[in-house]
Design brief:
about 120 residues; alpha/beta; Rossmann fold; two-stranded antiparallel ribbon; 4 helices; 7 strands
Length: about 120
């Protein structure tokens, strides 16, 4: 899968740090994605999940002290692929999400693209 394979995908961005959110949004647009959000709180992210058609999501695990797992739970119920972006690695993940793609912060355009490709390819299999 190359960057053009990401074109047209509607990706929910969930990130509470404004500079990181802007960076994520810029990269997703560069890949040709339509960005939904960014959402900086769990409640806002859940509202966007329920009110938009989504192809995938990038979820920061810690949103101003609140864990993103209610959003991950809802995305999983809807069978929408998602990945976690975190500076803490897999250590903070519940067992149910240990198999999910984890994007280590700070990330680059290349590592984000590869993580998204891995996220989407894992949903096909």
């Amino acid at each position: 899968m190359d960057a053009s394979a990401l074109a047209g995908r509607r990706i929910l961005a969930v990130e509470d740090e404004s500079l990181v959110a802007m960076f994520l949004e810029d990269l997703l647009v560069e890949f040709g994605c339509t960005v939904i959000g960014p959402a900086s709180r769990v409640h806002d992210a859940l509202t966007l999940v329920e009110s938009n058609f989504l192809d995938g999501a990038v979820l920061d695990i810690n949103l101003a002290g609140e864990r993103v797992f209610p959003v991950a739970d809802r995305l999983a119920e809807l069978k929408i692929p998602f990945l976690f972006a975190t500076g803490y690695g897999e250590a903070g993940l519940p067992d149910v999400y240990r198999s999910k793609v984890v994007l280590q912060k700070p990330y680059s355009a290349q590592t984000l693209r590869k993580a998204l490709e891995q996220c989407f390819s894992s949903m096909r299999g």
